Amino acid sequence: MKRLLLQIIALLLFLPVTLTMWLLAWLPDRLNRSYYPRLFQYWSHLFAVALGVQLRLNNHQKKAMPQQYILIANHPSAFEDIGIPALFQVHSLAKIGVKHWWVVGQISVAAGTLFVNRRSKTSRRQAVRNMIHSLEDKHWNIGLYPEGGCKGKDIQPFLKGAFEISLHTGIPILPVFLHYLDEEAFVWLEGVSLPEKIVQILKAHNHRADYHLFDAIDPRQYHDLNEYKADVHQKYLAWEQAIKFNSPSLSEPPIIGELNMR
Questions:
Q1: pLDDT value, residue 208
Q2: Which class would CATH give 2-258?
Q3: This prediction's pTM
């Protein structure tokens, strides 16, 4: 009952907050820069609660969080486009099409989202430069999906961009493994529109989303880009087996928190 009440409150707040953010998004970047990314984090939080998603951050870390990081995650669903920024202070990398989405596109631009046309080598190289420039700001981190897009529930091969940036800047990779208990409802497959996927998430039999946070990976232990990428990919494959199939090799983590209306 309490969760349903919170969802109703979030739904009532979501439209006026979205309209306010959309109007503010048209202001010059120099005016928005100081506050808008954090407002976007609150909006993402609100969106998650409005969808009824129980977003949990499970901490497997044994070391302290780095001051700055390059967050990577698997990308099974459209939900992580709000799930990740709801939990982490990151400028996300998104496909160029998001920039042109109605209302959400302008909000994403104002929030500092970085965009890439994955079919264009020139655009991909420019995206790398933009991410390095964003990291030089020091106040925020970047978040991206090394599978190169929304690839379904099974881990796919990684692209090199995140690891190239990490080696170039010396900034560690922060790995997060995403697991939705009702995969059928959350996984975004080709041919399903975003509004259809939102409806499917609302109707999910289990709304729990477990985001598993692991220790940051120091690029200084690698001298070869392919070795770095392959090693992290193998970690994800191991986490996939351990988390999805409840392997005893992965101990029960402390939960940092469940996202709710506070």
A1: 95
A2: alpha beta
A3: 0.90
